[in-house]
Design brief:
The complex is a heterotrimer. Chain A is mainly alpha-helical. Chain A has helices at about 5-20, 25-50, 80-100, 110-125, 130-140, 140-150, 155-185, 190-200, 200-210, 215-230, 240-245, 250-275, 275-280, 285-305, 310-330, 340-375, 390, 395-405, 415-430, 430-455, 470-490, 490-510; strands at about 60-70, 75-80. Chain C is built from 22 helices and 2 strands. Chain C is globular, with a radius of gyration of 21 Å. The interface of A and C includes residues 68, 151, 173 and 181 of A.
Chain lengths: ~500, ~500, ~500
């Protein structure tokens, strides 16, 4: 039995403890150690990526033994393509976030410890396969995030952090109650086992037997749905997000949007889709409308923002909306659609790709915002700048690439994901896909507006002396930019690894 | 009828005789040998003599195991009555011990002898089954108590209290006599067992009812049960504290003993029923009402008292209510539970009054405010006070708790089909109330600080020993009640 | 072995009483050593107990034969859990009151007397003996609060004492009635819990006597609407006092409900099951709601205790194995966590700042001035809101699971209570430690006394306990579960026709 995944989770966790114990004085040591820990994580993740067998759609690196037998709780870790992808994304974004906050001096030891704990929580969430400790990590990630916003955030950080926490907890409690009910009816917390039950239809029968309500399955589903919908977020559960993203320090926002928001989508893929396909199907139309609304409304909201950070925050909602659209569409009973399995696989492939891409791109964008803020002394209004392209051309160029990646320019990574999603969704739910294209359009408009207002036009004299990217900063953004190109041109790099997983998921959905 | 054998009387009444001799010795010593000595010395030596006498009488009563019935129940000696004599003597000893530090009188000899004389009356009270003798013994003891109440000449309240006590007592005696005479008229005898035979079969006639009610009224005064309790708070407050202790302990034990005897022996067949689902007229419902009133009124009135002695007086009324439950449930178990209750209550109450005596001597008054800071000024005394009051409040593992448990469980057990549960519920509810006022006193002693830098209180050694011993007994009978119940 | 917890503790009281009056240091050390000895004995004894599912007799000698009372100490898994909890709470409470200067010796004497009584309750298998120990705890409680407390201490103390006393008298009525009926059925007087747990009391009798006894105990468990003593009592109490109140004394009530009321009157429970659950959930939601709007830091924790104890009662009301498991585990968990919260608020914050008003605390930025307190409170708060990884989660998790099958709607409602719990904890964290309000000028000449070693030890011990149980609930579940699972256990009758599935 190997312990790759446990070690992977423990490294940042223990690193965080060590760093917290170092004290506030030894700032450089703290930063160095934090970076080292996160790089170890990255190394580990890459190592696993290399050892991962892409042909098998099943779980790998499995660790499984009894934990609390009386409650049916097992220590059950494992990753398939989906989990591994998310682990990799986490491993990539965390060192970037640490580097982006290199000059952070205020209580640096606590800050870095919190970031590492957040990473540990994320690793745990993406690898746990038993509800009990999955939930443990799911919540564990929340607390560092709360404090990172609360202690190092912008002027309105207090309410923002509270709102973030409470919203997420509402979802978590609903989720918890749902799973308790499931555990009660089935005696299991094991995601894989539950998925099997769902496929054979036993789950609903058992739930009905235990509770005597006809619609219990749906009620339980809504509880779980709420948990993930808040995290993604789905409109109308999104209101915590703009405040949290914009008040959090930018490196933290990188983590929030890059990885934490993926927890929600991951939950949909890992839990809701396999365990509640029937229920999703029963309320498919409203769910699709929700996804469409998320896509369109968030794009429009982004368009109305005056603050760059809030704008990107809303665009984040928009991007994950596509994932949901594809997710829900993939459950549709696609009679009369040719090769419906293929379409579904395409859509889900798109979802996975989109998750990774968005993690990469959005964190890069927030990184650029962080760098811009550093230069402007904290200003980040859309109208505070103008004509920057003349004085900081490299910055402009690289941020431009990220923006274009975000709006889905072919050749960059964003395109492939969205393309696959639309390709899959159109035959399955044509009307929803059609309405959603409005979102694509509006996204293009507001991102171009961003470029125009900030980088083009007459130069705002105030920023005449703004320095361009330093060498260190260039190296900092380089990996992200490079990956954007690589994945844009060679998406197979990821698709190859996740394809088998997706095929298996599609099989799970068909019965 | 056999010719009177005086030697036999002397033998049977030996404990009483010893106490009587002790009275003479104490009086004689006080006027001869101790003349001119300080009050403290007179008290100490007199008390020593009195205690010696009581102790030897108690020893005698304890050691002999005879059973005798003289003059058709006029003088009944049995292990049970002997045990109560022992209890009375022990209570007397403790009363004397806590009196020794008293400065309320310079008539030491008289004071001690009166206590002893009262004790003699009470001793006769418990060893008779004849109404006439009951009456005589009761009045004999009462006379002593009236005077004891008036003994504090420095305090006007003392005389007032004594007068009040005397008037009420006299009235109650009249009622009692009236009731007894009616009983005699109905049954044609003053012997309790014969009265029972006489009543039996005659049905429940109005005359019996009047006799019953007047008897209850008469004893109601003696044991200070509501609504015949009005003398008690004034008497307790005005009397010298050791006298109050004696009224609250010894006289109570004897009164309850004889009360139980009269009702359970003499009124067989006229019980009626106080069960809530089966209310029948008879003596139990009458006592039930008196008991309920005593518990409620005693406890509620005690809450608002500021004088600790008055507080103890009202609590005594309440406790009388509980004890009456033991009588009305009318089974051997409940009777012995009641006697356990009375004895432990008497011990506790002497202890409580003992502490009050010391505090009163040291601070000049017995208001709750004067107890402030007692835990600093006299830690041992405060601890004793805590034990006594908590026992009165019924906190385990003290005697008061186990007594309540015995009594209440016996009462519930007595009524068929849990019929008497309502009284027990009332009693338990009221005992929860009582906790509040006991705690008020303890709060002053333990929580509040003395007003100014009050000096430590010197506790007289004899008194302190007595208190510690009492506290020990209260704990002992709480933890190992079997030591006492085996005699009851 | 376990009986020595009681003896050692009371011996400690005696030693303390004999110490010279002004030697505070000696008093502290004696108290600490006594508590540690008790704790160690509790641990060792608990581990040694071979079969936690069965009632293992420690000592049984006749006490008052005439009423069937025995001096009967024994333990099953549930007792073990609570005895260990008491040991931990006792030690940490002393560590958190190391700074008591006023009449130290008496403080610790009362403190240990309380602990001794609590040990006694958890180990008694004779109803009368249990009741004796139960009442024995009332007096020390009263004096600890009235003498060493703060904020309306005399009122709080008296309220607590009277509520406890009224509750215990309700119990007494029920016990006497039950004793009489049992005597009729058994043919001999008995107060033996095991024996009484086999008596089939008439159903009609159970229907009225059960609520009496249950409510009597539940008053001390802080059951809504009889909870009002809890917040005032907790607030008024000195730190160690509130730690013990919330930590173990409230458990006495819940324990009594389970061990006496429910075991003796199973039909009564079934009759009133829904009412208990409804009151429990009302307590959960109400306690949390009120905690949300408090200005006094300690009131927040006080009301949160009411809310958390609601979970215990809810678990009891489920009458299924998992719910009862959860209830017992929640007793342990809340004991640890509430102790910790009160330790932070009472000792670390109040003793330094002399205020618990959020409006004042907001201006102090305590998170920066005494970071250890801030971090401890955050951890305790996280544990208290029932986040996984801590004991509270495993416990509430099982309670809710048990409740789902019996009261689905109430379960959902209690979810709301959890959420409000999150909200008030966050609010307390923010206002108490990490506020954004403009800081008042700090008096740099008189900085706060740094967190002492004793405090650190106490906090780490409690956090560790909560964490260990959170991650390895099996440690305690192995004790608790067999008690309910065994068909021979005293609870079997309770579960036979239980409301589950």
């Amino acid at each position: 039995m190997n312990h790759w995944l446990t070690i992977l989770t423990l490294v940042p966790f223990l690193g965080g403890i060590v760093i917290a114990g170092l004290g506030a004085e030894r700032k450089n040591l703290v930063r160095g150690l934090a970076l080292a820990a996160s790089l170890v994580g990255l190394g580990g993740a890459l190592c696993m990526w290399l050892h991962f067998d892409p042909k098998s759609g099943g779980l790998q690196f499995v660790e499984k033994f009894d934990w609390v037998p009386s409650l049916g709780i097992q220590y059950f870790l494992g990753v398939d393509g989906l989990g591994l992808l998310m682990v990799l994304l986490t491993a990539i974004v965390t060192p970037l976030a640490i580097l982006a906050s290199w000059r952070m001096d205020d209580r640096a030891h606590v800050y870095h410890a919190l970031i590492l704990w957040l990473q540990a929580g994320l690793f745990g969430t993406f690898t746990a396969l038993n509800f009990f400790h999955w939930f443990l990590f799911w919540e564990l990630g929340l607390i560092p995030a709360f404090f990172l916003i609360k202690l190092w955030g912008g002027p309105k950080r207090g309410p923002a952090a509270t709102q973030f926490f409470i919203y997420t907890m509402v979802g978590s409690v609903a989720l918890l109650l749902s799973f308790l009910a499931i555990r009660l009816a089935t005696g299991s917390f094991d995601f894989i086992e539950l998925a099997g039950m769902a496929k054979s239809g036993v789950l609903v029968t058992k739930l009905q037997a235990a509770f005597g309500w006809k619609n219990i399955g749906l009620i339980i589903f809504f509880g779980a749905f709420l948990g993930f919908a808040v995290k993604v977020p789905v409109i109308p559960f999104h209101t915590w997000l703009p405040a949290a993203y914009s008040e959090a320090p930018s490196p933290v926002t990188m983590l929030l949007t890059g990885v934490m928001s993926k927890m929600g989508v991951y939950g949909f893929l890992r839990i809701l889709l396999p365990i509640f396909p029937e229920q999703i199907r029963a309320v498919l139309i409203p769910l699709l409308w929700l996804a469409v609304a998320t896509i369109v409304l968030s794009a429009c909201a982004a368009f109305a923002q005056k603050d760059i950070k809030r704008m990107i925050a809303y665009s984040s909602i928009n991007h994950l909306g596509y994932c949901l659209l594809a997710l829900f569409a993939a459950t549709a009973v696609a009679t009369g659609v040719n090769n419906s399995d293929l379409q579904k696989a395409a859509a889900l492939d798109g979802v996975l790709l989109q998750m990774f891409n968005h993690g990469l791109t959005a964190s890069a964008l927030f990184l650029f915002v962080a760098l811009l803020e550093k230069r402007s002394g904290g200003l980040r209004g859309l109208d505070d700048f103008g004509g920057l392209r003349k004085i900081i051309p490299v910055f402009t160029g690289l941020m431009g690439i990220s923006i274009f990646s975000s709006l889905g320019l072919p050749g960059l990574n964003g395109f492939v994901g969205e393309f696959l999603i639309f390709k899959g969704v159109f035959p399955l739910a044509p009307w929803a896909a059609a309405v959603s294209t409005i979102g694509l359009l509006v996204t293009a408009i507001f991102l171009l507006t961003l470029i125009q207002r900030v980088f083009c036009g007459p130069l705002n004299e105030r920023w005449a002396k703004m320095p361009d990217l330093t060498t260190a900063e260039r190296f900092l953004v380089l990996p992200s930019i490079a990956l954007m190109f690589v994945l844009g041109i060679w998406p197979q790099f990821i698709l190859g690894a996740v394809d088998a997983t997706v095929v298996k998921l599609v099989q799970q959905l068909n019965f | 009828m056999n010719p009177v054998n005086y030697l036999q009387i002397l033998q049977l009444a030996a404990p009483e005789t010893i106490v009587t001799l002790t009275v003479l010795v104490v009086l004689g010593a006080d006027v001869t040998v101790l003349r001119g000595k300080s009050i403290a010395a007179r008290f100490n030596i007199g008390a020593l003599l009195a205690i010696l006498g009581c102790a030897s009488a108690a020893l005698l009563a304890f050691m002999r195991h005879i059973e005798a019935n003289l003059f058709n129940g006029l003088l009944v000696v049995s292990p049970s009555s002997d045990f109560f004599k022992v209890a009375l003597l022990v209570l007397t000893i403790f009363t004397i011990l806590i009196s020794t530090s008293g400065k309320f009188t310079d008539h030491v000899g008289e004071y001690l002898s009166l206590i002893l004389l009262g004790t003699i009356g009470l001793m006769f009270l418990v060893s008779t089954e004849d109404l006439l003798m009951v009456f005589i013994a009761l009045e004999f003891a009462s006379l002593a108590l009236y005077i004891l109440t008036a003994f504090n000449k420095h305090n006007e309240k003392s005389a007032e209290a004594a007068l009040k006590y005397f008037l009420f007592g006299g009235m109650s005696a009249a009622f009692l006599l009236f009731g007894f005479s009616l009983l005699y008229g109905i049954a044609g005898s003053t012997n309790l067992r014969e009265i029972a035979l006489g009543i039996a079969g005659k049905g429940f006639d109005p005359l019996l009812l009047v006799a019953l009610v007047t008897t209850v009224i008469g004893f109601g005064f003696k044991v200070a049960a509501v609504p015949f309790h009005l003398w008690a708070p004034d008497a307790y407050e005005g009397a010298p504290t050791p006298s109050a202790a004696f009224i609250g302990s010894g006289s109570k034990v004897a009164s309850f003993y004889v009360l139980a005897k009269i009702f359970t022996l003499g009124f067989i067949g006229a019980e009626g029923s106080a069960a809530y689902h089966n209310f029948l007229s008879g003596w139990t419902p009458v006592i039930a009402i008196v008991a309920a009133l005593s518990m409620v009124l005693g406890n509620l009135t005690a809450i608002v008292q500021s004088s600790v002695k008055r507080l103890l007086a009202y609590s005594a009324i309440a406790h009388a209510g509980y004890m009456l439950l033991g009588i009305l449930s009318n089974t051997p178990v409940s009777a012995s539970a009641m006697m356990f209750y009375v004895i432990t209550y008497a011990l506790t109450t002497i202890g409580a009054f003992g502490v009050v005596t010391v505090v009163e001597e040291a601070t000049g008054s017995d208001t709750i405010a004067n107890f402030r800071g007692l835990s600093r000024r006299a830690p041992g005394l405060a601890l004793c006070l805590m034990i006594f009051l908590l026992s009165l409040g019924g906190i385990p593992p003290l005697a008061g708790f186990i007594a309540k448990f015995f009594l209440f469980s016996a009462v519930v057990n007595a009524g068929a089909n849990l019929g008497l549960l309502w009284l027990v519920i009332l009693a338990i509810a009221m005992s929860a109330v009582s906790f509040y006022y006991y705690l008020r006193v303890l709060k002053a002693a333990y929580v509040e600080d003395a007003a100014e830098a009050a000096p430590a209180i010197q506790v007289p050694l004899l008194t302190f020993l007595a208190l510690v011993l009492l506290a020990f007994l209260v704990i002992l009978f709480g933890v190992a009640p079997g030591l006492l119940t085996q005699f009851l | 072995m376990l009986a020595w917890t009681i003896y050692i503790t009371f011996f400690g009281v005696l030693v303390l009483m004999l110490l010279p009056r002004d030697n505070a240091r000696a008093a502290r050390i004696v108290a600490l050593l006594t508590a540690i000895a008790g704790c160690v004995v509790a641990f060792v004894g608990a581990i040694q107990q071979a079969n936690p599912g069965e009632v293992t007799t420690i000592v049984k000698v006749p006490w008052i034969p005439s009423i069937g009372a025995n001096y009967y100490l024994a333990a099953d898994g549930i007792s073990l859990v609570l005895v260990v909890l008491t040991g931990l709470a006792a030690v940490s409470g002393i560590l958190f009151s190391w700074n008591i200067e006023k009449r130290t010796k008496e403080f610790f004497a009362f403190y240990l007397a309380l602990i001794g009584g609590v040990y006694g309750v958890f180990l008694s298998f004779d109803v009368l003996l249990l009741f004796v120990f139960y009442e024995l705890t009332i007096i020390p409680k009263y004096f600890l609060i009235a003498r060493w407390g703060s904020t309306r201490k005399e009122y709080g103390a008296m309220k607590l004492a009277l509520y406890s006393f009224v509750g215990s008298h309700l119990v007494l009525i029920g016990l006497i009635a039950a004793w009489v009926v049992a005597k009729g059925q058994l043919g001999h007087a008995s107060l033996d819990l095991i024996e009484l747990s086999k008596v089939a009391f008439p159903v009609a009798f159970q229907h009225w006597v059960f609520p009496l006894v249950f409510v009597g105990f539940a008053i001390l468990a802080g059951m809504w609407p009889f909870h009002t003593w809890a917040p005032t009592g907790h607030v008024a109490a000195p730190t160690a006092g509130s730690m013990l109140l919330a930590g173990v004394v409230m458990k006495l009530g819940a324990y009594g409900c389970l061990r006496v009321a429910m075991v003796m009157f199973p039909e009564g429970v079934r009759e009133w099951q829904w009412a208990i659950a409804a009151l429990a959930v009302a307590g959960i939601v109400y306690g949390a709601g009120v905690a949300l709007v408090q200005r006094d830091f300690k009131f927040v924790i006080g009301y949160s205790s009411v809310s958390h104890m609601g979970f215990v009662l809810l678990g009891l009301a489920t009458l299924n194995t998992i719910g009862l498991d959860g209830a017992v585990l929640q007793m342990f968990s809340h004991g640890i966590i509430a102790g910790l919260l009160f330790g932070v608020v009472g000792r670390m914050v109040y003793d330094r700042t002399h205020t618990r008003d959020f409006n004042d605390l907001e201006t102090m930025q305590l998170g920066k001035l005494i970071p250890f307190a801030g971090v401890t409170f955050v951890i305790a708060g996280v544990a208290s809101m029932g986040l996984p990884g801590f004991s509270g989660f495993v416990a509430e998790f099982q309670v809710l699971m048990g409740a789902w099958s019996v009261f689905p709607k109430l379960t959902i409602l209690s979810g709301v209570g959890i959420l409000i719990g999150v909200a008030y904890t966050l609010r307390a964290v923010q206002k108490g430690f990490y506020s954004d309000a403009p800081p008042k000028s700090v008096d740099h000449d008189h900085p706060f006394e740094p967190i002492t070693i004793a405090e650190r030890f106490g906090a780490v011990m409690l956090i560790g306990a909560s964490l260990i149980i959170g991650l390895f609930p099996g440690l305690l579940m192995n004790w608790i579960e067999p008690c309910f699972n065994s068909p021979l256990s005293m609870f079997a009758r309770l579960l036979v026709k239980g409301g589950s599935q």
